[in-house]
Amino acid sequence: MYLPHFNKFTYQLPYLHINEEEWAYIKETFNKDDVKESLAKIAMDYSPPYMDISEDDCRKDFVNLKKTWVYDLLKEGEWFARTETSYDWPITYEGSQWYIKRLNTGNKASNHFQQENRWSVDGTISPGPLRTWGELKFMTSLMGAAYTLDMKKIDKSILRTLDFSAGWGDRLAGFYSSLNTELYVGIDPRKENHPIYEEQARYYDKHLTFFETSKKAEFHCDAAEDFDFTPYYDTFDIIFTSPPYFNVERYSYDDTQSWVRYKTIDEWNSQFLHKAIDNMWPTLKTGGKLCINISDVNAGSGGKKSWLKICDPMNDFIEEYRDSDYLGCIGMEMATRPNSIGAGTAVVSGESNRLPDMVKDKSGRFCEPVWVWEKK
Ligand SMILES: C[S@@+](CC[C@H](N)C(=O)[O-])C[C@H]1O[C@@H](n2cnc3c(N)ncnc32)[C@H](O)[C@@H]1O
Q: In the Cβ-directed half-sphere of 181, how many Cα atoms lie within 13 Å?
């Protein structure tokens, strides 16, 4: 039931605001479900709470990203994955476990451009931020948080990179902020992303200094499995991407999206992921690395929901090449909040999408695997 007490919080400037005293009074006085519903109703009259990221914030964050040194991020240490005991391939790298620490630096450098685009996308298990803001039932459940949350060279330079699911432009920001990179090729079929990639690249270009390598970014609006890679044969030092996690992430409903085209996990594995890798393998130079951030998923395939294998079939597929060498797996540290949206993705990274027996230690470090292969 809507509580008229909340009328006074409508149309506030600059934005909805309930001070500590008021909030304490509300919690003490009214029924929790009524508060959640009332809060949801009034909040929906405000625009979604996008973070204000000014151009100046973006520039400063981009400069800070440039100062980030690989050894500050790449750490030796234990981590666990969603389905760690069921991967056939070891999640170690050169004999021990390594992971990439969570880092917020750089988020503003890409989010200044991509925030609204990113928020417009839904996950399969939960709606995206924009849809949540538009539907009362999602908003009411979201308002529960008001109660639960405490409110008071490594040894050589990488020069040319391919990103075959370019997503929200985070790797593009990473490319521009690295000293020795010179070519970024980004492929993604989501057409809404492309004008924003162009805008990002123009902006970062403007902020490169005299001392940095000049950079070239090329974008292709296409499905990776359809793309003609011939012009790029023997070009890349690194292929690094985070493809969609089968149908758990639905970035758009266009028929170039892999989840729209391939309805079962077997089709998706072979006709999207394996086919795309197969087509791009000749673009990798000898000694080049293929790094894929992907994990198995708990999702529907052929009408029923279960744990679906993506990683082992992918690694088994790459192993078949006579010139491939498995280097290992590095963890990418993620938030472990249940049902939280993963770091910059529409994937559900919480316990609901992990096998219960895999959550060995709830306070342990949760990572997504990045599988690393080298071309011999
Ligand atoms: C958003 S990324 C994954 C998230 C990543 N961590 C990031 O933030 O950059 C996944 C991308 O895969 C793209 N995608 C979907 N189908 C694809 C296909 N057939 N070929 C290449 N990319 C595809 C989606 O459009 C989406 O932008």
A: 23
